[in-house]
Amino acid sequence: MNDPWWLVLIKVVVLFVVLLLWTIFNVWYERRLVGKMQHRLGPIMNGPFGLLQALADGMKLLIKEDFIPSMVDRVLFVLAPIIAGTAAFTAWAVIPFGGEVEIFGVKTYLQLADLPVGVLVLLAVTSIGIYGFVLAGWASNSPYSLLGGLRSSAQMISYEIGMGLSLVSVFLFSGSMSTHTIVEAQRNEVVFFGYHTTLQSWYWLMMLPAFVVYVISMVGETNRAPFDLPEAESELVSGYITEYSGFKYAIYFLAEYINMATVSAIATTLFVGGYLPFWPLNLVPGLDNPWLGPIWFAVKVQLFISLFVWLRGTLPRFRYDQFMSLGWKALIPISLVWVALVATFRGLGNAGLLQGPLLYLVIGVVVLGLLVFAFVGEKPEVPPPTRPTVLDAFAGGYPVPPMPGQALPEFSNVVAPAPAELTDVDQTSGGES
């Protein structure tokens, strides 16, 4: 893009203000929606419908005293939230809000920068943002913060792979890594398995497995419930931000909500048509105006954010081993198999081989292979039940929970003796026991 510097500056300022206001709205929106789910009112006192409550909470964090513990690494302790906040804002540089418009006589996209590898930039920026969480845990010199930072890094590695693989099929179908090009590719007619589609070719339906994997991965990537293990208050106090307060805490709070909107914007751009209007509204003349693109885009992103809130209000937190098994044993293999299938069909389609009986033969072989994999696989032998070994939980000086196959020793229920009856002297206010 060859925008003049003043237009780039206008886009940066507008994008920064929009993200701040959107975050304030999402804080209010989440509290109100969860309140409705749990038969509560949520914020209603300050401002119309309680809209000023989120603004008041943000102002409180900004003016609150900022403590820095004495034993922390002060340089990394201050640098960590800056990295997290910067990465959260930077990711929006390649997100398209609308098509080509004219601003003060200059034709431009409603997008800060349209890069030929825009999706790779998104993945790279979101990966860099994890340094803000890991360094926070390391620099805080606290066991709870360190465990929270390590959990964040393990969580990012586990779900970033599945997320990246789920996007490969989008690249194969659109033939580009430019976010603007991917959105425009969903506007046009597309050939799918040899057939022409006349409706909008949004990728979420044609690539449903990749879409489901991405939606699950984006919840794990943002540390949101039920995957909020890095900051589980029942285990780690507040995780990697335990030692933070004031403005630094506000940056992490802001980064969490911006990241939630970021992954929702990526899902909207790559799978749900981005700034394109909903069907059948796209058939109405005038509703496909590029200036209306930000409205359609915001509505779609807000629907994904509603999904985040819905999951938080309904599902309990996962156990950590369940969470890691889901990423490594389910999402990554499904993504690999789906990428192989899409690449095979795409290659055969480009060569003109997916026509007539060959198309049905290939689909039949794929379905048969999936059925064999699902139902005819060897069942693991179940070992005979054995008596669990008794665990001495205090053998190492610190109590540990039993592992599979272990059991705690049985303790007899000893009834404590009843307290002796109080004497007349004991019952007086000044008596001695």
Brief sketch in words of this structure:
The chain crosses the membrane at residues 6-29, 75-95, 115-140, 161-182, 202-220, 257-279, 291-311, 323-345, 357-377. With 433 residues, the protein is mainly alpha-helical. It has a domain at 66-353.
Task: Write the topology of this structure.
Elements: H1 5-37, H2 52-63, H3 74-90, E1 98-103, E2 106-110, H4 118-139, H5 143-174, H6 179-185, E3 191-192, E4 195-196, H7 203-206, H8 208-221, H9 233-236, H10 246-271, H11 293-314, H12 320-350, H13 357-375, E5 389-390, E6 406-407, H14 424-427
Parallel strand pairs: 5-6
Antiparallel strand pairs: 1-2, 3-4
Helix pairs in contact: 1-2, 1-10, 1-11, 2-10, 3-4, 3-10, 4-5, 5-8, 5-12, 8-10, 8-12, 10-11
GO molecular function: NADH dehydrogenase activity; oxidoreductase activity, acting on NAD(P)H, quinone or similar compound as acceptor; quinone binding
InterPro entries: NADH_UbQ_OxRdtase_su1/FPO, NADH_UbQ_OxRdtase_su1_CS
Family: Belongs to the complex I subunit 1 family.
Structural description of this entry:
- It comes from Propionicimonas paludicola.
- NDH-1 is composed of 14 different subunits. Subunits NuoA, H, J, K, L, M, N constitute the membrane sector of the complex.
- The chain crosses the membrane at residues 6-29, 75-95, 115-140, 161-182, 202-220, 257-279, 291-311, 323-345, 357-377.
- It is built from 14 helices and 6 strands.
- The chain is mainly alpha-helical.
- The chain has a domain at 66-353.
- The strands form 3 sheets. The chain has a two-stranded antiparallel ribbon with strand order 1-2. A two-stranded antiparallel sheet has the order 3-4.
- A hairpin with a 2-residue loop joins strand 3 (191-192) and strand 4 (195-196).
- The termini are far apart.
- 33% of the residues are buried.
